[in-house]
Amino acid sequence: MKFTPAKPPLTGETLETLTARLRERGEPAFRAKQILEWVYKKRARSWDEMTNLAKPLRAWLADTFELMPLGLLFDKQSRDITDKLLFELGDRALIETVIIRAPQEGVGLDESRKTICISTQVGCAMACRFCASGLAGLKRDLNAGEIVAQLLHVCYREDAHDPRAHAGLATFDNIVVMGMGEPLANYDAVLRALTIVNAEWGLGFGARRITLSTSGLVPKILQLADEPLGFRLAISLHGATNEVREQIMPVNKAYPLEKLIPAIKTFTEKHGRMVTLEFILIEDMNDSLTQAAALREIALDLHAHVNLIPYNTVEGLPWKRPSGNRMERFADLLREARVPVTLRREKGHDIDAACGQLRLKTEKDREAMAAAG
Ligand code: SAH
Fold first, then answer.
1. Predicted confidence band at 136 (pLDDT cuts at 50, 70, 90)?
2. Active-site residue, selected from the candidate residues 66, 96, 146, 278
3. Could you give the CA distance from residue 58 to residue 216 in angstroms, rounded to a whole number?
4. Which atom of ligand 1 is nearest to the CA of 213?
5. DSSP for 315-338?
6. Nearest CA to ligand 1 atom 21
7. 313 exposure class (CB count in 10 Å sphere: 0-12, 13-18, 19+)
8. Can 66 be counted among the known catalytic residues?
């Protein structure tokens, strides 16, 4: 399940590891910084652009590292709110990265705030019953370089119409680790990637603007609580009682609510930040007012924000989203108790925005093409 690329991606190197590699070649210590500046600040797309490096060094770099480990297969623009990028990796595996724009009054779409949703695994082992990503199980973990490269690629794409590019800054506003995969099941690579994204020699992107979303791996939530970088945390709850939650999320068997809730509390206490509880609303599964009341108690206990998400239908799965009225009533029960709640209206329907769906479709097309010879 592990993929070892012929050449490691440069985007997986830290200043420390790159400096060490270059020292072996007898290069001075400042060389690594120069190279990383080309990659992250000047967004060089080829080694030859790095003109302050001697040609033999550039040749060695090209032999040793992959500058960009992702090939863009598909750039699906909705011209609305959500754009989707489909990437092919070195072993032909597919991953998705999503750009979500939050339109602001009086501001064009290009200048609107951008949230980037990144993937951390190819497929997923969590097997949540409603999710497209888990349908075929886990294929493999992404390495740190493949995770960072998704964000760098978004910069390439957005730089042209974003003035922040001139200052070498990231051309997006928030990162949500909510794409394909369970980030806390690929902990080391994800942490390394986010450290690179955060570092001043990397993308220089603030940890407070990065949200990790987990299905609830309790030991890893506790580990994350002890990290020096203050990432935000979102929990995919989707069921406010064990009875409902374990029907749709197998992870609830190992980490039921009586284990999950104290872990979230520990995280909140260490970080002094509100955690977000994500709750997909699925018709006749978790959308009753009894569930709303149970969710209200959990949110009050945790001082958490609740994000209600209308379910996005997935081809081949029976689940549906409830009616607008029913969702509003669910939300009202929380609002009445002053729980901060948002009821997100999904806007990416036209481009298969739900997690893992574009990849699934492309995998199917590939199979069909292979079958047709
Ligand atoms: N494994 C992590 C992150 C990836 S899933 C986690 O579970 O949090 C990101 C979010 O999308 C999760 O809240 C997940 O439950 C939700 N999701 C998955 N399939 C969905 C669908 N069809 N409609 C709406 N949300 C979905």
1. confident
2. 96
3. 44
4. 8
5. TT----PPPHHHHHHHHHHHHHTT
6. 312
7. middle
8. no
Does 278 sit in the ligand 1 pocket, CB within 6 Å? yes
User: What span, in angstroms and rounded, lies between the C-alpha atoms of 96 and 336?
Assistant: 38
Active site residue 355: yes
CA of 131 to the centre of ligand 1 (A): 6
The full DSSP string for 165-216 is GGGT--S-SEEEE-SSS-GGGGHHHHHHHHHHHHSTTTT---GGGEEEEES-
Domains of the chain, with CATH numbers?
Answer: 10-64 (1.10.150.530), 70-372 (3.20.20.70)
pTM above 0.90, yes or no: yes
82 in contact with ligand 1, CB cutoff 6 A: no
Instruction: In whole angstroms, give the CA distance from residue 169 to residue 204.
Output: 7
Contact 282 CB / ligand 1 (< 6 Å): no
**209 Cβ contact partners less than 8 Å away, ≥ 6 residues apart:** 173, 174, 175
Q: Does ligand 1 have an atom closer than 6 angstroms to the CB of 96? A: no
Q: Please tell me the residue having the least CA distance from ligand 1 atom 15.
A: 236
pLDDT at residue 313, rounded to an integer: 87
Tell me the pLDDT tens digit for each residue of 62-73: 999 999 999 999
Q: What is the position in ligand 1's atom list of the atom closest to the CA of 235?
A: 8
Task: Examine the pLDDT at 128 and tell me if it is beyond 70.
Answer: yes
Q: Is the CB of 213 under 6 A from ligand 1?
A: yes
CA-nearest of 193, 70, 178 to 126 is: 178
